[in-house]
Amino acid sequence: MAEVSKRALGLGTENAFVVLAEVNALMRSGKDIVSFCIGQPDFPTPVHIQDAAVAAIRGGRHGYTPSAGIDELRAAAAGYLSRTRGIEVLPADVVVAAGAKPFIAYAILSTTDYGAGDEVIYPNPGFPIYDSQIRVNGAVPVPINLRESRGFNFDPAELEARITPRTRLLILNSPHNPTGGIIPRAQMEAIAAILRRHPQVWVFADEIYGRLVYDGEFVSIASLPGMQERTIIADGCSKTWAMTGWRLGFMANRALAPYFTTWITNTESCASQISQWAAVEALNGPQDAADHMRSVFLERRDLIVGLLNEVPGVTCQSPGGAFYAWPNVTEACRMVGAVDSEQFRKRLLHEAGVAVLADIHFGPRAEGEGQHIRFSYAASTEAIRAGIGRMADFVRNNAPAR
Questions:
Q1: pLDDT at residue 39, rounded to an integer
Q2: Residue 104 and residue 111: Cα distance in Å, rounded?
Q3: What DSSP line would sit under 237-295, residue for residue?
Q4: Residue ranges of the chain with pLDDT lower than 50?
Q5: What contacts 95, CB < 8 A, 6 or more positions away?
Q6: How far apart are CA 140 and CA 169, in angstroms?
Q7: Which DSSP string do the residues of 163-181 spell out, in sequence order?
Q8: Phi, psi of 110 (to 5 degrees)
Q9: Are 339 and 360 in contact (CB under 8 A)?
Q10: Which pLDDT score, from 0 to 100, does residue 402 have?
């Protein structure tokens, strides 16, 4: 029998979907589960965006588009990025894809060479596709640990220590998945100052949660002096406008846009034309629904953080953005006799009917950082109250009697 390649065998995955499949199987068997696994808004796509897609369908916009995207969307994205980042982005700088996720691979493919020892620095914990795509595309992954004591940011001195002559790309994600941390301006300026001493390093700025900031300000590294030219800004419609299934993302970088366009020609051909017209309306149309979703997420953040901090053995920092909470469950694990957060997660699912993700689903646990789990609070307030209540009961019922 023909063999599968080592590359395919070694390809990582996004564990949120793996756990979600397990959760769905349990629910089909009749198990009552409150799920906090998947990172997608639980709102419908705003009606005016749906209407734009229907108009595109009825208007016969069914065919291929240029690989870089329709002119109208590239112009809309350029305007949006210019307004929200305080920089000048031209339509020619923008490339559209089927979601923001493909840009991770295209960025690595465009800045590193396979097997040449080129290094990519990325956050740990972090979106698992970073590590997966670095490895499968033949680059060397160099994790930099996010510290709870720093609000789930890394020490800029640690970044400088990890940069070598082989470093080709730095991945930044702010607001951050899975912790909800944001990189404050002072730290972003410190990162930029370090990078100015290392001109060979590109930056992939994963800013998909940029509109979901609750504390402080959103700062793009591209807005700092000398950084726009070497920064690949990645954004999209999934989180801000509840359009995960529409698969529509966009990037901006003047030098790399032609190469990203060619990668798209070689892979997906183009994003769905219907989704592109919907995205034009998302970017240029009324923002009331997006603003409302953000305000609801903020209310849910405050609710879930407050409730988690009442659970025995749990502490939870208030995340500055996105829609994830990253509580420390080190003491809760000890109380229930779980060896680590992954065993705690499994028991929480099967014994309490609460589905979360463990820290190891987002990279190797950093020494001294304790045990953590991730909640996506893209869930109703009723689900949040019920789920955290079950978690509290689980810990209390399994803790040794005093």
A1: 87
A2: 11
A3: STTTTT-GGG--EEEE-TTTHHHHHHHHHHTTSS--HHHHHHHHHHHHS--HHHHHHHH
A4: none
A5: 68, 69, 74, 250, 251, 252, 257, 260, 261, 264
A6: 10
A7: --TTEEEEEEESS-TTT--
A8: -90, -10
A9: no
A10: 62
Question: Which residue's entry shows tokens 């366009």?
Answer: 261
Please say whether the beta carbons of 248 and 277 come within 8 A: no
Helix (H) or strand (E) holding 206: strand 202-206
How far CA 298 is from CA of 241, 301, 347, 378, 385, in Å, comes to 16, 5, 29, 11, 15
Gap between the Cα atoms of 125 and 362, Å rounded: 5
Residues in Cβ contact with 144 at an 8 Å cutoff, skipping those fewer than 6 apart = 121, 122, 123, 124, 154, 158, 159, 162
Contact between residue 44 and residue 389 where contact means Cβ atoms under 8 Å apart? no
The alpha carbon dihedral of 77, 82, 87, 92 has a sign of: positive
Taking the C-alpha atoms of residue 123 and residue 202, their distance in angstroms, rounded to an integer, is 15
How distant, in Å, are the alpha carbons of 93, 94, 110, 194 from that of 90?
5, 7, 20, 27
Strand partners, 121: 142, 170
pLDDT for the residue numbered 121: 98
Letter string b/e over residues 311-347, b meaning 16 or more CB atoms within 10 A of that residue's CB? bebbebbebbbbbbbbbbbbebbebbebeebbebbeb
Residue 399 has a pLDDT of 84
Residues 6+ apart with CB under 8 A from 122: 130, 131, 134, 141, 142, 143, 144, 170, 171
Q: Report residue 36 as tokens.
A: 């906090």
- Long-range contacts of range 183-188, CB-CB < 8 Å, 24 or more positions apart? 183/153, 183/219, 184/151, 184/153, 184/216, 184/219, 185/216, 185/217, 185/219, 187/153, 187/156, 188/219, 188/221, 188/224
Residue matched to tokens 């009749």: 30
Tokens of 167: 């470093």
Q: Which amino acid is at 230?
A: R
CB atoms within 10 A of CB 64: 8
Spatial distance between the Cα atoms of 40 and 352, rounded to a whole number of angstroms: 23
- Tens of pLDDT, residue by residue over 186-204, are 999 999 999 999 999 999 9
Exposure of 292 in the CB half-sphere (CA atoms within 13 A): 10
How many other β-carbons are positioned within 10 Å of the β-carbon of residue 168? 21
- d(CA 355, CA 358) in angstroms, rounded, equals 10
